[in-house]
Amino acid sequence: MKSDTATCIEASMVPALPHRLIKLGFALMLGCMPALAKADPDFDTLSGPARAIDADTLEFGFKRVDLWGADAMNRFQKCLVNGQSTACGAEAWQLTTNLLVATPITCEMRGKNRYNRNMAVCRNANGVDIGQSLILRGMAVARPDQMPEYETYENQARQARSGVWAGEFIDPLKWRRGERLSEHEIDIRRW
């Protein structure tokens, strides 16, 4: 049988034990904070299955990569093709999704964008350059400051009137900044 003094000592230690564990856990968490701050570290090459977040943004698990040199129509972007409003952004996203079926996808890093996200040239298992394919099919515009050779593919798409080149569209960069075709502007009324 335990004495009252022993029980009292044990009881006084019980609240201290969780408090010590909390302090230890907090100290460990602070020690790990620099590692958490680098959740998307720099890497040279990524390879494996990927999914399309947007037509020009791929996700490998928790790592996102934007296509280098190809700026695709944004997922919710609309265009006018042959006088008809089309969901050209959704079409671009579907094209990228179809190209990702041939896995593994391999991406070679080339730089960083303004969001500090890695930018890469990505190819599927058949060797198809995803950015180049989007440009050739008229679902992306070339960024010659990043990939000068993509400008040739954009010119081919323009001449063939492929994809968005068959009508009117807003450059994806301007679209992200809020510019829209007059047919797609939203009239906001305040009551």
Helix content range: 25-40%
Largest sheet: 6 strands, mixed
Estimate what percentage of residues fall within beta strands.
Answer: 15-25%
Radius of gyration: 26 Å
What's the tally of helices? 5
Please give the order of strands in the largest beta sheet. 1-8-9-4-3-2
* Sequence stretches where pLDDT stays below 50 over 5 or more residues: 5-14, 26-40
Can you tell me about this structure?
With 191 residues, this protein is of the alpha+beta class. The chain has 5 helices and 11 strands. The chain has helices at residues 4-37, 88-99, 130-136, 150-160, 172-176, and strands at 45-48, 51-54, 57-60, 63-67, 70-72, 79-81, 84-86, 105-112, 118-123, 140-142, 167-168. Strands 1-8-9-4-3-2 form a 6-stranded mixed sheet. The chain has a 3-stranded antiparallel sheet with strand order 7-6-11, with no helix packed on it. Strands 5-10 form a two-stranded antiparallel sheet. Strand 2 (51-54) and strand 3 (57-60) form a beta hairpin. Helix 3 runs parallel beside helix 4 (150-160). The model is unreliable at 5-14 and 26-40 (pLDDT under 50).
List keywords for this structure.
alpha+beta; 5 helices; 11 strands; six-stranded mixed sheet; 24% strand
